[in-house]
Amino acid sequence: MSVAASTSPAARSIVPVALGDRAYDIHIGAGLIAGAGPLIQAVVPGRPLVVLTDSNVADRHLAPLMASLAASGAKVLEPIIVPAGEASKDMERLGEVMDALLARGIERKTVLVALGGGVVGDLGGFAAAIALRGLDFIQVPTTLLSQVDSSVGGKTGINSRHGKNLIGAFHQPRLVLADTVSLDTLPRREVLAGYAEVVKYGLIDNPGFFTWLEANGQGVVDGDPALRAEAIRVSCLAKAGIVAQDEKEGGLRELLNLGHTFGHALEAEAGYGGELLHGEAVSIGMVMAFDLSVRMGLCPAADAARARAHLAAVGLPVDARHLGGGTWTAETLAAHMAKDKKVKDGRVTFILARGIGQSFRCADVRLDDVRDVLAASLAGHAS
Ligand code: GLY
Questions:
Q1: Which residues line ligand 1 at a C-beta cut-off of 6 Å?
Q2: Can 239 be counted among the known catalytic residues?
Q3: pLDDT the model gives residue 2
Q4: Which residues contact 305 (CB under 8 A, 6 or more apart)?
Q5: Does residue 92 sit within a domain?
Q6: Phi and psi of 37, rounded to 5°?
Q7: For helices 188-205 and 278-295, what crossing angle results, to 10°?
Q8: Residues 168 and 265 placed together within one structural domain of the fold
């Protein structure tokens, strides 16, 4: 996977997701929201459209999207706007979205356009998967995290009181439009959280990309348009390559969960009220995964230190020390892991690493080692 030295800020790129008769393109570039109409017409010509978005995104991006859709000649139904925030990914809100879709007289040929971050994409994708037994949908992700991860690959769903994303379906979008300008209005903390998922692709299997991020990551976070577009392009290329080989997560796709088993435990303990963003939990979780790999004698300590140093250098959290006011314990975090949906036959599969860009699946992990890594992170140092 190559990484360009630089790209023009105006450049647009297209990353194909090769899934046979469900293949689709990811467009990346500036102005894709205001220019969405013709791009959508090219994929689903003449079909009625309904936009789902949230209250924050609606204020910023709904008007230009609606104007572009109308100008392209499409029949556009009244948009559906849900409250912003993770709380909208629940059964009650899903029921309201389904009611709103049916009240608008949707047909099988209606296409749902999900405009927003991961919550809107996951909720909208799942609503599309089950409405009238399946509507086509289009992702217009407006956060870095959704542009590099959740809008690509067809994972859709909502949370349950038993855990995150436990109710859902694989349902691939027909098109993804990642407008890099939408990142300009994101709070820095949200950008950083998304950046953790960018780093993840380097750590999984692309050491060249990780080295590029060490040199350019600060520019990506700070808002350099060309660097951002390139980081998103390489991330989408990585994700598309994995999804094309293992759409339903039978094996290879599990690598995308690097840092997530630890991260989900942190998120579960923090609750989903905003104390800890998903990407922040993944950042800490990836450091823990590298520390666990070192502890198990699989990974040179220098590589774990390099991963930790880069995440810390851009401003991401790398240990769990201050979370929960410093009151958390390794035991409670380990108990959350036992409930993760990746548990198989009572065993938790971890994504570990033999070095930067050399991650692999491992079901053979001693719980004592996991607890030691958690305890070290809570104490604020590498294990
Ligand atoms: N976010 C992990 C995946 O899509 O598989």
A1: 149, 153, 155, 253, 256
A2: yes
A3: 43
A4: 382
A5: yes
A6: -50, -60
A7: 30
A8: no
